[in-house]
Amino acid sequence: MLEINHLYKKYLNSNRYAVEDLSLKINGGEVFGFLGMNGAGKSTTIKCLTGIYPFNSGEIKICGYDITKDSINAKLNMGYVPDNHSVYEKFTGREYVNYIADLYRVSKEDREERMTKLAKLFRMTKALDTQIKSYSHGMKQKICIIAALIHNPKLWVLDEPMMGLDPQSTAEIIKHMRNHCEQGNTVFFSSHNLDLVAKLCDRAAIINNGKLHCIIDLHEAGNKEALEENFFRITACEEE
User: What is the pLDDT of residue 75?
Assistant: First the structure.
């Protein structure tokens, strides 16, 4: 579903890699957590795999499509929820979701059915026809999620999805993450919430100073309990 091989990314005027030799493979049906402190390289990795950032070297494939060589097909199989709620605030929620549906070539019939279902799931039905600028933080997050799922992507990518959300909204998103994977799809999300990752994920990776240090199978005995210990041990390491 998602394959990253030897990814290197360095920003202009920087003397170090923001992401260095990162490789991982995520299968269908998985909820995969990407853990790290602020500045560890989580968002940079996500922006590379979504095609927002170019990268120096390496390979990224979504459902077998190379993000640099066949970006259209790669992106058609992916839904992305950014960490900054980048939306057109003068649009209504419905107008914004329809705009995204047009980009992803979703038929009118399919978009109406999915929008109705997702709006009901996230308690956004009444808000669909009001301007996004009037939305709360949580409502903006949820309209971004609805837009990201309108084309029923196989890979759902979220960058710090629970940041600033109330418990009810968090629970709604968690439930849909699980439902998405039960259909054979994949969820990849970044976080520094250890409890959430231990509770929700099948596997989790820990990144620090741009380097992937380990991938932990959270179904193996004792690994949920060891996640916090590993996280603090790795993130306490000083950069060389």
Answer: 94
Domains, the chain, ordered by start: 1-77+154-240 (3.40.50.300), 82-152 (no CATH)
As a dihedral over the C-alpha atoms of residue 219, residue 223, residue 224, residue 226, rounded to 10 degrees, the angle is: -170
- The tokens describing 225, both together, are 């309990």
pLDDT confidence of residue 238: 53
pLDDT digits (tens, 9 = 90+) for 171-196: 888 888 888 888 889 999 998 888 88
Distances (CA, A) of 34 to 173, 177, 205: 17, 15, 5
Which pLDDT score, from 0 to 100, does residue 230 have? Answer: 87
Share of the chain above pLDDT 70, in %: 98
Task: Compute the radius of gyration of the chain from its Cα atoms.
Answer: 18
- What burial letters (b/e) apply to 11-48, b meaning 16+ CB within 10 Å? eeeeeebbbbebebebeeebbbbbbbbeebbbbbbbbb
